[in-house]
Structures are given as C-alpha cells and as structure tokens.
Amino acid sequence: MQTISRQDMPVQDLVDALAGVLSPAQIVRDPGVTASHAGDWSEAPRHAPALVVFPRTPQEVAGVLAVCSRLGQPVAIQGGLTGLAGGATPSGVEVALSLAKLNTIEDIDTVGGTAVVQAGVVLEQLQQRVEAEGWSFPLDLGARGSCQVGGNAATNAGGNRVIRFGTMRDLVLGLEVALPDGRLMTMLNRVTKNTTGVDLKHLFIGAEGTLGVITRLVLKLSPRATAANTALCALPSFDAATHLVRDLRCALPALSAFEVMWDDYLEAAMEVTRLRQPFDAPHPVYVLVETLGANDERDREALERELGEALEQGLISDVVVAQSVEDGKKLWAYRESIGELLGQLKPFAAFDVGIPMAAMDAFVESVGSELERRFPAQRHLFFGHIGDGNLHVLSGPHASPDSLHQVEEVVYAATGRVGGSISAEHGIGVVKKEFLAHSRSPVEIELMHSLKALLDPAGILNPGRILDTA
Ligand SMILES: Cc1cc2nc3c(=O)[nH]c(=O)nc-3n(C[C@H](O)[C@H](O)[C@H](O)COP(=O)(O)OP(=O)(O)OC[C@H]3O[C@@H](n4cnc5c(N)ncnc54)[C@H](O)[C@@H]3O)c2cc1C
User: Fold this and answer.
1) Degrees (nearest 5) of the Cα angle 93, 96, 99?
2) Alpha carbon of 324 to those of 36, 81, 128, 297, 331: distances in Å?
C-alpha cells in the first residue's frame, strides 16, 4: 500500500477519496458545522476542522479510516465533545470523524442484563431506555446529556457511582473497534466470564481513541433501583469524611455515591445556582451521600440510622436527608453545578487526580495554600468522588497560558510526590501529556509507543494524544 503524505493535499482530493465510502451529505465542509466541531470542554487550542465526516455504520467508520491511512490524513475522533483533556479537539491539520450518527441502541437483553449499543448513543438516552426496561446502566456523570458511550469507554469514564459499580471499564463486556488500517475487529462478547486469551478490548478502553475507533459496545446492566435516598452532610473536617466513608461502606451495601465538596466549592456552587445555604452556618467539608436500593422505607431508615450514629460520634455536624426524589435532586444540584462553574472560571485548569486517601487531607491543605499564595486573584475549588480517591481541583480564571501551566506544575508535582495518578477519569489527551511521567514508568510509556506503532503505523488516529508522536 502506498502512503501519500497529507501535507499540501487539497481538501477536495480527500473529499473525492471519501466519496467512495460516504454519501455527500455525510462529508460536511459547511463552516457553521465545522465550527461546532472545533474542540471539547478543555482549554486546548480550538481549530475548526476542514471537514467533518458522519459515518452511519461501523463499516463506514472502517472505510473512512482505510482512506485516511492510505492518504496519511490525520483524524480527530469525536464523541459528545464533553472531554476535559483536549483529546477530541482537532489540531490544525486533522479532519473530524464524528460518531454522532452511529447512535442506535441495537438490543437490550432483559433476561441477561446486557445492552448492545452503537458508540454514538448519548449516555442519558441509554440510561432512560434501559430504565424503561426495568434495568439500569449505572455509569453517571454531569455530562450525561451530551457525552456518548463510545467516548465514555475511550476515556474510561468514572463519575458519581464508581464506589459501587466501578468505572466504564467494569461495565463493558464487549467491543467492536475499527482499526486505523480499515479492519473492523468485532469482540461483542456478552458473557461475564470469558477466559480465551488476551482480552483485547482493554487495549481500547481508556486509550482515548489513539489505537482504534470504538463502533459498538456490549454493556453490563444492573437491576433498576426502585429506591434512591440522598443526604447532604456537613462535616467538621476531611478526616471525619474518611471515617464516615469507611463506616457507611460497611453498614450500607446500597451506598452508591460519596461526593465530597470543600467549603469554597459549596460557596461557589451556591453563587452560580442561586441555591440557598443548606445549613445554618458554613462548615469546612460537605458530603453528598446516596443509596440505591429496592425498599424506600427500609433504605431511608438504614441511612438515617447510620447518619444519626455519625452525628453522635461527631463525624457529622449537621445533616439534611431528602424526603422525596425532588428533594434529592435539589441536594445533587450543589454538586452538579460543575458545568456552570467550568463556564464561569474560564480559562481554567481542571484536574481529576487520584490521591491515596491517607494523603488526601495534607494534599488539599498544601496544594490549596500554595495556589492561594501564588494566585490570590483566582478561585481554587476542591471537590470529588472521594469514595474512590478521585479529587477534582478547579482553578481559574487564568488569563495567561503561563499561569495555567504553573498551576498544573503545582498540582501534578504534588500528585507525583504522594504516588497518585495525574488522571483518575478524564484522560491525558493533549493537556496532560507532558506530565505523564509523574504517573507512568519509562517502560510503560515505551510499550504504549510500541502499541501505537503496531496498530496505527501511518500515525493518523488522534496523533499527539497521550504520547508525543514523531
Ligand atoms: C460538566 C461535566 C462533568 C463531567 N463529569 C465527569 C465525571 O464525573 N467523570 C468523568 O469521567 N468525566 C467527566 N467529564 C468528562 C467527560 O464527560 C468524559 O470524559 C466523557 O467520557 C467524554 O465523552 P464524550 O463522548 O464527550 O467524548 P469526547 O469528548 O468527544 O472524546 C473524549 C476522548 O475519547 C475519544 N473518543 C470519543 N469517542 C470515541 C470512540 N467512539 N472511539 C474511540 N475514541 C473515541 C476522543 O477522540 C477523545 O480522545 C465531565 C465533563 C463535563 C463537561
């Protein structure tokens, strides 16, 4: 196969080559459309691609990749564009491959509890559809209304319920992937136990589209919970939160979320949402607790009993327990204000570090003080899915790229010192790759380069994400 360099190749040549795979309506050059594919939610520099392609079948995705490999044309893979690492943001020379039209829920097995879905299905649509069938897809995150299940798998998304159901990796039974050379690899396994050699799907989960395009997925469902109970707790310290999460995990098998917000976060959340202060006075730390079960009364009693004991022990200073689903949504609104906060603090530095629980308190204290000392005019908000050690830091607005970079250095150096992970769930993309060595060894990085060269020898697929490519 002869590879032609993309450099200086007129866009029309590419359009002509793609016309063998897609209809004209699926190859879009309209600036009104390309502008809306210029980037994700991160601060990575945006570029409107010269064209966006919208394949409708896995075979068309594979066909597009075959053409692009042959022509040496780099491609930015785009799901719902809610990523926070710049992975789906096109560089100046990349065309965009959008999964938005590959969006059919193909099958729901209501006996075995699995769903076969195309990659462009929006997470919230899947959640609602399986709920109607008496099941639940438990992955849940603030971007549920726009992010796609393919993007969730590519980033190994986590979210609010990892403490109970795991990350996206734990929810994927099978995958279908279009490889950069145009082959379609179907691994649509539906069974939980399958020991038949190397489980290749894991190569593509969390690879952020650098090794292949996920086209279809088999997802593991959970029985639908009929009772959701939520409480917002005010705590005297983060140390109290570490004891509370341990106690609640032991006592409440239905525990599904344990979200921590430090006081600055709650204050900022109240400003953007216009929600009221939930307690009579401010407290240093707040925890949003949720249980998902099958018996509303019994689950509420169990939650109230455990929280009552925590009050007596001084782990909690005050608590509000939702008395209805609507009340529960109001309590979640404090935590879910993150979308508005991201908009308000632009240009921001957003972190999703994984920190060992034992080191969390000191980490927040030292990083918080250093950021406040060096950037007194900015806001530095700490919150996260602390039940699984995932801390978010949102710092902004930072007008200069230099200031953003300095914040990154402070947070990632501190993360490396405590043996944490520089990305617990958003991925590396382009915005964190220079810090990858804080979390991965030279041998691991070398092997990642080898895998990239093996699967994508023409280097066309999301080049420069996770790793620098030559
Ligand atoms: C308000 C808000 C809240 C969020 N909360 C969370 C959270 O709690 N937990 C969490 O994990 N994330 C969270 N995120 C980040 C984001 O929603 C997730 O990373 C999500 O999984 C991205 O999905 P997407 O479809 O939008 O992917 P995109 O942003 O389009 O792409 C993300 C990466 O995956 C690649 N990709 C996309 N689709 C495919 C595919 N089919 N095959 C191969 N590669 C593909 C892209 O090239 C890119 O590298 C949040 C974002 C926002 C804006």
Assistant:
1) 165
2) 39, 33, 20, 11, 11
Instruction: Give pLDDT tens digits for 225-255.
Output: 999 999 999 999 999 999 999 999 999 999 9
pLDDT at 470: 62
The structural domains of the chain, ordered by start, are 11-101 (3.30.43.10), 105-223 (3.30.465.10), 227-338 (3.30.70.2190), 345-427 (3.30.70.2740)
Residue 9: is it exposed, middle or buried by C-beta count within 10 angstroms (0-12/13-18/19+)? middle
Tell the residue nearest (CA) to atom 1 of ligand 1. 339
Q: Which atom of ligand 1 is nearest to the CA of 342?
A: 1
| Mean pLDDT, range 389-395, rounded to an integer | 94
Atom of ligand 1 nearest to the CA of 150: 41
Ligand 1 atom at shortest distance from the alpha carbon of 41: 53
Q: Which two tokens stand for residue 19?
A: 């016309």
Tell the residue number behind the tokens 């691994």, with chain if given. Answer: 187
| Interior angle at CA 117, CA 113 and CA 122, nearest 5 | 110
- Give the distance (Å) from ligand 1 centre to CA of residue 125: 16
What is the distance in A from the centroid of ligand 1 to the CA of 86? Answer: 10
Could you give the CA distance from residue 16 to residue 413 in angstroms, rounded to a whole number?
48
Whether 365 and 238 have beta carbons less than 8 Å apart is answered as no
Burial class (CB in 10 A: 0-12, 13-18, 19+), 358: exposed
C-alpha of residue 330 to centroid of ligand 1, in Å: 25
The pair of structure tokens assigned to 280 is 């009579």
Does the predicted TM-score (pTM) go above 0.70?
Answer: yes
Residues with CB under 6 A from ligand 1: 40-41, 77-84, 87-88, 99, 119, 141-143, 147-148, 150-152, 154-155, 157-159, 208-209, 213-214, 338-339, 425-426, 429, 462, 465
